[in-house]
Amino acid sequence: MTQRLESAMLRAGLDSATLAMRVHVDVKTVNRWLAGRMPHRRTRLQVAEALGETEESLWPSARPDIQAGAPATAEVSAAYAHRADIPNDLWISLLNRATERIDIIGYAYPFVFELLPNASEIVAAKCRAGCVVRLGFADPDCAHVMERDVLEQMGGTLPGRIRNALSMLGPLADTPGCQVGLHATHLYNSVFRFDSEMIVTPYLFRARGYQHTALYLRRHSPHGIFESFSDQFEQIWGTVTPYSRGFANGLTA
User: Fold this and answer.
1) How much is the pLDDT for 27?
2) φ, ψ for residue 193 (rounded to 5)?
3) ∠ CA 97-228-104 to the nearest 5 degrees?
4) What residues have CB less than 8 Å from 237, skipping those under 6 apart?
5) Is the overall model pTM greater than 0.90, yes or no?
6) Taking the CA atoms of the chain, what radius of gyration do you get in angstroms?
7) Of 71, 62, 42, 52, which Cα lies nearest the Cα of 11?
8) Which of 101, 165, 167, 194 is the Cys-Cys partner for 108 at CB 3.0 to 4.6 Å?
9) How far apart are CA 169 and CA 172, in angstroms?
10) pLDDT at 1
11) What is the DSSP string of 217-228?
């Protein structure tokens, strides 16, 4: 820990006296930290901010909650018996708050574009402001879609639901910063990520999408539940076929 602090001070170009002045302590106190003493929590946060670091990077033992193998239940902000139980206000607030990243992967999720009458335009505006958006839908013509249709007893309607969702993209299909892809993967859950918040719907046998359970997650650790589902998204996204406007016109319901 002392080496981490000393290295951070060197990177920031601060000596003991300057750091002491920045965090309003005596220089002897800083020297005691360099000798191995750990500051109190409030002071650790001040030091981390002054050095442009994080608390856990300077004093890993002070944050056992975000270390590999630590219980990650704190990342579960809420759990719902069914996706349909999630209040629309939560979905809308997640959509409106996102500024950096929106990642969604599922079979078909037209309800996302039905949350607001101008949902597609809102997401397109976020893309123009620098938000990265990736939307993954199931390829309506792949074999996995019909297998899922049979599993969920949808009577052959799933391909049409996907085409309907694709037809609701509006300006997003041509908006820089928004990537739309089609996958042919058997999914075990859908992922809806908005910056450091996420809703995951683990699939239940023979249940429809709105009947699946749902977890509302907030990212606290690079080793937590959030990161596991984020990694799953990345792996599936690596298999998608890019979706173009020309292809879109052929898929609209």
Assistant:
1) 96
2) -105, 135
3) 45
4) 103, 105, 134, 136, 181, 183
5) no
6) 23
7) 52
8) 165
9) 5
10) 65
11) EE---TTSHHHH
Task: For residue 180, give both structure tokens.
Answer: 């739309």
Phi, psi of 200 (to 5 degrees): -120, 135
The per-residue b/e assignment along 6-32, b for 16 or more CB within 10 angstroms, e otherwise, is eebbeeeebebeebbebbebeeebbee
How much is the mean pLDDT over the chain?
Answer: 92
pLDDT the model gives residue 245: 52
pLDDT for residue 216: 98
- Max alpha carbon distance in the chain (Å)? 74
β-strands 214-218, 178-183 pairing: unpaired
Check if the beta carbon of residue 226 is closer than 8 Å to that of residue 219: yes
Ordered alpha helix ranges (H), 41-87: 41-51, 55-58
Instruction: Record the tokens describing residue 164, joined without a space.
Output: 């309907």
Question: How far is the C-alpha of 171 from the C-alpha of 157, rounded, in Å?
Answer: 25
Residue 253: what pLDDT? 36
